[in-house]
């Protein structure tokens, strides 16, 4: 599974990339939404993990832009700012899951796999 990890904090990107690699997944990183869109244009990804609060383009805007070109790609939101309005908006816009920082590595892997399986099941029913 190819995963795009988008977060403005380098340490978060690095920790996630290492955790995903250890779980046998292929991780590519981007530091903001604009760079993430460039990465998406360069190659396909099975799933994306994005922070909400980032410079240049936030995670909600990235989710909206991603939906235009890749409407079925699962997107997991990670955030340290879990305001109810933000959580509700992310879900309404089609986020597959939302994890609150700090999270455990196994939580992100479990959430990724769950979202990917749901996506695969939806593909077979359409």
Could you write a compact summary of the structure shown?
The chain is of the alpha/beta class and 126 residues long.
Structure overview:
The chain is α/β, with parallel strands linked by helices and 126 residues long. It has helices at residues 10-22, 33-42, 59-69, 84-92, 105-125, and strands at 2-6, 26-30, 47-51, 75-79, 97-100. It has a single domain (2-125), classed as 3-Layer(aba) Sandwich (Rossmann fold), CATH 3.40.50.2300. 51% of the residues lie in helices and 19% in strands. It has a five-stranded parallel sheet, with helices on both faces. The longest helix is centred in the last third of the chain and has 21 residues, at 105-125. It is globular and about 35 Å long. The mean pLDDT is 87.
Keywords:
126 residues, alpha/beta, Rossmann fold, 5-stranded parallel sheet, 5 helices, 5 strands
> Can you list the strand order of the major beta sheet?
2-1-3-4-5
Residues in helices, as a percent range? 40-55%
Task: Calculate the terminal CA-CA distance, rounded to whole Å.
Answer: 21 Å
Gross geometry: globular
């Amino acid at each position: 599974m190819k995963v795009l990890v988008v977060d403005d904090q380098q340490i978060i990107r690095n920790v996630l990339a290492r955790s995903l690699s250890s779980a046998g997944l292929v991780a590519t990183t981007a530091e903001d939404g604009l760079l993430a869109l460039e990465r998406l244009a360069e190659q396909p990804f099975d799933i994306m993990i994005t922070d909400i609060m980032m410079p240049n383009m936030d995670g909600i805007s990235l989710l909206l832009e991603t939906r235009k070109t890749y409407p079925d790609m699962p997107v997991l939101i990670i955030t340290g700012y879990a305001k109810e309005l933000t959580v509700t908006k992310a879900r309404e816009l089609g986020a597959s899951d939302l994890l609150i920082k700090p999270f455990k590595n196994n939580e992100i892997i479990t959430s990724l796999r769950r979202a990917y399986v749901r996506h695969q099941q939806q593909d077979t029913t359409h």
